[in-house]
Each structure stands twice: as C-alpha cells, then as structure tokens.
Amino acid sequence: MAIAKSERLMNLALCLLGTRRPLSKRELRGSIEAYMEASGDDAFNRMFERDKDDLRELGLVIETVENLEGETGYLARRDSNRLPPITLDAEEAAALGLAAKVWQQARLAGAASGALQKLRAAGMPEAEDSYETQPSALEPRIPVREAAFEPLMLACRDRRPVVFDYRKANAARPETRHVEPWTLECWRGHWYLAGWDRDRGAERVFRLSRITGRVRSRAGAFTAPVPDVVTVRETVESWAGETATRSARIRLRAGCGYPLRARAQAVTEGDDGWDDLEIPYGHGLDAWLVEFGPDVVVLEPADLRADVVERLRAVAKG
Q1: What contacts 23, CB < 8 A, 6 or more positions away?
Q2: Of 30, 135, 168, 306, whose CB neighbour count within 10 A is largest?
C-alpha cells in the first residue's frame, strides 16, 4: 500500500529535526520507508526534491551543507525552527476566550478548547472578566445543527465542487444543485452558503437547513473565479427585505414573532390576542414569514399574501 504523502513529509521533517549533523540523500533514503520503496534513483530524487520544497513552503527552515565526507547533507536546526514566545495582553486573551466560547456547539469546539488550553499553559494571562468563571445571562453561540455544515466548510477551505439536494421554500421536492462553494456565514441564527451554481451559471446563496441528504464532493477545479469579497450577508439581507423601500401589514399573534417585532416600523396592539405590524417589504420576505406558520397573517399587499399562501400550501403537500 502506498504511503501517504503527509506521512512521508512528517517522517522527513522528523529526520531533519532530530539529527545533530547533516544527513545525505543516501542516509535519508535508508531511513524513510517511502524512499526505500521508490523505484530507482531518479524516482527517489524527484520525490525527495518535491518533499523538501513542500516542507520549506510550510515554513520549515532546511539548511544545505557539506558533511565531513564531502557529501551534500541536509538538516533543520531546532533553534531556527522554534516559534517565538507567545505574548498576549489581557484584552487579547479575553478575545481568544470569547472566540472559543462562540464555537462551543460546532465541530470546532474541541480544536478551539485545545488551542486555548495550550496558550494558557504557555503563559497566556487569564481575562479578569472570564466567561468561564463569571456567569452571564447572555452567552455568545454559533449554532451548527445542520449536517451539511462540516462537509461544506471543508469544501470551501479546499476549493472543491460539491453536489447536494436543495429544497426551496416554495418547492414540493428538492432539486440537485452543482455548486462551487465560496464561503459560509451565519445570519439571524441560520447558516448560508455562497457559491457559484453551475447549472444556472450564476452566484447563488443557499440556506443550509434546506439542504437534504448528504453533501457529495466532486473532483476537478472551479470553473468560475472566486470573488475577493463575497457579500453573503448583504445578499441575504436584500432577499429578506432589509433594504426594502416598500412596507407590508401583517397580523402577529401576541407574544410571538419577536424578530418581526424588532424590525417593525409600527406596532398596534390589539385586544383579541393579535397585534398589527408594519414591516419592511422586499424580495424574500414571504419565505421569512412562512417560518412563523400560523402565528402570522398577511393583510397587505395582496401579492405578498398570495406568495405566503402558496408557500404554505407547498409545505403542507410535503
């Protein structure tokens, strides 16, 4: 079975860091299993030169010197590859502690907690108002309940195309989408993916909670350029009516729909258990109102009411 490149690079790095004298290619070939299995000197030399360049790109300082026999040798001195001391003030330590708390519900929770413990062991100061020691009524969280989050996060990082089934709010059945993922962003408690939709030949934003089934990776490179700045939040806000110039009137059950109340331009409390609200109206508001189910009734405009009714009927059909 072929030895993974990552294991080969690790073995080479350990050899170069663990020696007190330069090691020749001959010695390295006799010490690393993957090099022993190379078919011929040319294959070994190509593999070794690629690995050496990769390690240097990763930041390892490799020196090239001549040993006592006149052979070219290689070593990585520990003092040249030691990280500088980590110095953080109390405010920086507090910011890192807060960031670790934010990811408690995500898969990154373990990595964030482990990194924080290592920094504290290295002397990072404790924040005076620590989130771990001082209880608070409000704590930061990034909820990650969708199974699609992890594979999409890795696909965004590695620039790998993906395929998934996506069900729009007004659709009875999901559709297969071929996407080049750019970035993930959390907005109003929901995660969204921005990327290039290959089938439609345009940028699209997908809500992760509407992805059904498994996210599958696909081989190959991206076909569309990745923009320097991906405005996921601005796109979602415009769909949800954040930049709307019109307004809509709705009835909202008392004690419900606090996000709608927070955005309301006017609220008239009723004595029948329902309140009248005037809220900004833009593209996508119908999808947001559907989420509140029977707690919302659209009064006007008529086109918004019709869109909400259509979406509710599609959901009821399953």
Answers
A1: 15, 16, 31, 73, 74, 75
A2: 168
